[in-house]
């Protein structure tokens, strides 16, 4: 018995030892140099007893590798070989079954079933597919598998992102819709052509849709986060009519209210004064945006003053946005791609003004070939061209515009203007270089110059300039950043040359240098964050008078320079709670530091700012802190969609403004100067609440909006009657910091397609101010609210364009506005043997109402593709009815009688013809 037990024990021991030897994995050594994966499999087969089974058509098998292994088990070798591919493998004894993307499980357990249930529910295609990628196949039925399934850490959802560009130009395409038809999900590309969408594991049917390009259909199976870049080919199919439009019902779906976006190309069919398309004049036809009068360079948005608007050209501040007394915008329209006007909800990244932001984005240059366009008109001519520097990587775009306008002044019903002269020019350059997929640098330069004289002895001039350097960097798929350094400058001067003893030069200058950092973080489908900082250094020369002759009767005078630093941190979250309710939540913390060198007058606490109440005159050294102001700004927007075609939007916005414009005129003047907040001048503060209803009809053919708003303003700057602001060393003694309130209702109906298209807009609004300072001479209208200079309750605009054929169309404008307020003399009185005029309360009366009709005929050249250039003619008649609309009314006392005089800009029809061309 003992012998039998011993034999059995030895047998078990031997068997277990033998089994352990068999279980020990065999080690292998291989060296693969520039070999394909398929060749590696074949070499392993030849040197081992293992066999591989795979589909030879799989493209991953042709990938070449360089790897070496020394005494490594076979599974480790295979994992390294297929590491950066979509291949997986399954081992069965000495057989290796290669799969594409999918993972073969040897057993089924509850956890795996839960993880992969989404695949089963959506009925994904079978295990093996042929991978065919053809981005130009508009009706592709192939299936693309991206990534490979992980049997341990398998995710239910994956992020798909990428960039969509034009095949010919390599330029990014914005507004392209990425529609996942079987998931009821969609997104669209941003201005850089970038998109990002989160999709579930398994089959996704994708449509890439743009009206100007061929559609792409693609079926993909996602197994991991992936990037897919698409190149779209222009759709050259001949159609009766091709209309380029944004995503359907976009105005209904967007969260922000009080925002208008338009493409400048659409302005070519609008008849405007002197025949040139103009972004500012086009904006004035929209509800809530007005000018104090015809020929005024200032713009008033929802009851705000003209200095409360921020004009940005590629983020560079433009202080005077107009040429030629307000008839032309200072930015060449041929260089402008898109304009975004924020008059309600202002994004948290913008600050420094309390009424509106005009964001002007320039065109992108062409990376493949030389192109250009231009125009020749009765007053101006311009030329713009773009050319690649290094094909596919860098491009230059340049433009210039100049005027020959003296003859038009002879036609204006104003004797002084008829004896005047005026001219202007502007130039722009932008260079962009794509370093790689994640980095691009861009630099631009802009300069404009105006010269005019109202009399023969005085020459006025003003200029805008801007320079920017921008670095765009993608840290990863979720983080896109911009770093921008910008310098802007505005200057004006007066050269008076008559009597040498009184001749002089006068100069004013404001310079700002700012740094902007902005990062966009795509957290997930519900949250899109943007955050960053910007800081701006202001340097002002408030005024300098220099006598020309050394024997001059005048003396040299210079107002002390001003310096200030404005900084801000901001964060914004675009949050979608569900398909119906979305929010745009923003916070901006802004701070302003007034700095030396400076001399500040300190008045007795609570006493009026008069010379008799001076307590101290304090001198500050260079960069020494004078006064700090700061505050938190709220940017809240929300949208609730009742259905796909109807939504309601609510917004609340607050803003600080640390810079004021000094003007004693009714309308903006090129000689207006600017003033920073300091010890005695406080920053302005504004807050606005708005509610809007948005509706689209007939498959988005018509868009209707109705918006109401109420806003309050504190500490805006006004002045006593008769104040002399030039070379004033004590602005605070003439300044009145008042309060304002404005409210209104805006209605707009647009038709974007068809033979007849355009819009009709109506605004009822009021703009009221209160000037009630602590001294009698700074109290206006007994301290009660009264109408501002730009209060025009009724404003009605119609812009229509009718296309007879592809080449011929007619345009029609009609404008009606309530006459602006004016102060009238109501009598005379005698004091000290002198007779004086007694005036009414300020702005108690109004000038006559304004209305105007314009028409235009538009003739396009034939649409042959291979023509060397394409042309466009515009024949317009401005003020067709010859309406003698008053520009201003003034009063003169002659022989003891008060006589009223009216001036007009154009009191009869002004015909113009403009020729535009592209090549």
Automatic annotation (TrEMBL):
Keywords: Cell outer membrane, Membrane, Signal, Transmembrane, Transmembrane beta strand, Transport. Residues 277-353 form the TonB-dependent receptor plug domain. The keyword Nucleotide-binding does not apply. It holds the Pfam family CarbopepD_reg_2. Transmembrane segments: none annotated. The keyword Transport applies. Belongs to the TonB-dependent receptor family. Its main location: membrane. Residues 1-20 form the signal peptide. This is Carboxypeptidase-like regulatory domain-containing protein. InterPro entries: Beta-barrel_TonB_sf (IPR036942), CarboxyPept-like_regulatory (IPR008969), Plug_dom (IPR012910), Plug_dom_sf (IPR037066), TonB-dep_rcpt-like (IPR039426). It is found in: Cell outer membrane. PANTHER family: HEMOGLOBIN AND HEMOGLOBIN-HAPTOGLOBIN-BINDING PROTEIN 1-RELATED (PTHR30069:SF29), TONB-DEPENDENT OUTER MEMBRANE RECEPTOR (PTHR30069). It is a multi-pass membrane protein.
